Amino acid sequence: VKPISKIASAIAPSATLAISALAKQMKADGIDVVSFGAGEPDFNTPETIKEAGIAAIRANKTRYTPAAGIMELRRAICNRMKEDLGLEYEPSQVVVASGAKHNVYLAIMTCCDPGDEVVVAAPYWLSYAEMIRMAGAVPVEVRAEASAHFKITAEQLEAAITDKTKMFMLNSPSNPTGMVYTKEELEALAAVCEKHGIYVLADDIYYKLVYDGIEYTSIASVSPAMKEQCIVINGVSKTYAMTGWRVGYALANPTVAKAMSSYASHSTGAPATMAQWAAVEALEGPQESVEEMRQQFEKRRDHLVERMNKVPGVSCIKPQGAFYVMMDMSSFVGKTMYGKVIENDGDFAQLLLEKNLVATVPCTSFAAPNYLRWSYATSMEQIDKGIDRLEEFIANA
Ligand code: PLP
């Protein structure tokens, strides 16, 4: 049999899924692992949303839906986007897909030809670079330095743009850095994108998880021109603790939205019908649980950051959104721990898991070498236990 395609053989498996799968397996084997690997809320889906999914099944809402999603959901999305972000779209501009992840993929496939360049602010969510490559396009990294609070500037963006640039991808709040761009910073980036007429993929999936009382701005809302160029990505996974339901959505100008929906119609079709009805309830029903979960995340962030910054040899910047902290472990590179020379974040993460049973995600695959990503989508007790173990791990090395 002939080899698999060049594109498929170049795809790296998801490092985050790999480490959380390993931690889950160790737990299933009865090993007391404390896991900070999760990319999902630890809360359960709120009861009213679960009931809406069950009711949909009972009412036989079990058949195919239009590829872009049921009209009720597309309307609910338009209303929520208007209320929360001041963004006005028609239901025909909404594409519902099997998770925001698939929306990102559809957007890239719709806007980019092989050889086109896509500028990505690094550190970035590891799936971005792989998806760009899957389209035959070329990821171009712009490095956001820790000294700049992991945010890129308009000058850096301008310098990265060439004749081949088709798209700029921005994720705020960011996975893995947790940083949130201000309205002014977004305006400066938008001006560059407008000047060059490039698409902007605005991954706003963590928009409800912002802290310190800051007000969230979507880059799509800074000007009418920017809205026209933007593909806004969002979904119910993180906001409503619905990662397994697989419902995400995109909002775009009519041409892009129509092409994305055609692409989806020939590849997956719409997400599960009952999951779409549950998402309608999520977006239209009571919103109190969203704020309750946000407050829990904020408390955990404060606690984790405070404790982490007291551990000798490591440090972190306090993030303003999402549920991740990036721990700088560069002071250990080149040192010997437990008889092994630490060459990178991967070595450190593996030893920490083996010796003290703490699972984290090495950030090399997020284009952030010598950092470990800690997700605080876990309880306060687990956070304390994890940091206690980190202290022991470092002290006994
Ligand atoms: N975008 C970012 C930055 C993410 O971190 C994730 C999930 O980890 C997603 C999109 C995709 O979310 P989903 O496919 O569950 O809607």
From TrEMBL:
One of its GO terms (molecular function) is pyridoxal phosphate binding. InterPro entries: Aminotransferase_I/II_large, AspAT/PAT-like, NHTrfase_class1_PyrdxlP-BS, PyrdxlP-dep_Trfase, PyrdxlP-dep_Trfase_major, PyrdxlP-dep_Trfase_small. PANTHER family: ASPARTATE AMINOTRANSFERASE. Its cofactor is pyridoxal 5'-phosphate. One of its GO terms (biological process) is amino acid metabolic process. The keyword Secreted does not apply. Belongs to the class-I pyridoxal-phosphate-dependent aminotransferase family. Residues 32-390 form the Aminotransferase class I/classII large domain. The lineage of its organism: Bacteria, Bacillati, Bacillota, Clostridia, Eubacteriales. Its EC number is 2.6.1.-. It is an enzyme of class 2 (transferase). This is Aminotransferase. Residues 1-23 form the signal peptide. SUPFAM superfamilies: PLP-dependent transferases. It comes from Butyricicoccus porcorum. The keyword Signal applies. It comes from the Bacteria. CDD domains: AAT_like. Keywords: Aminotransferase, Pyridoxal phosphate, Signal, Transferase.
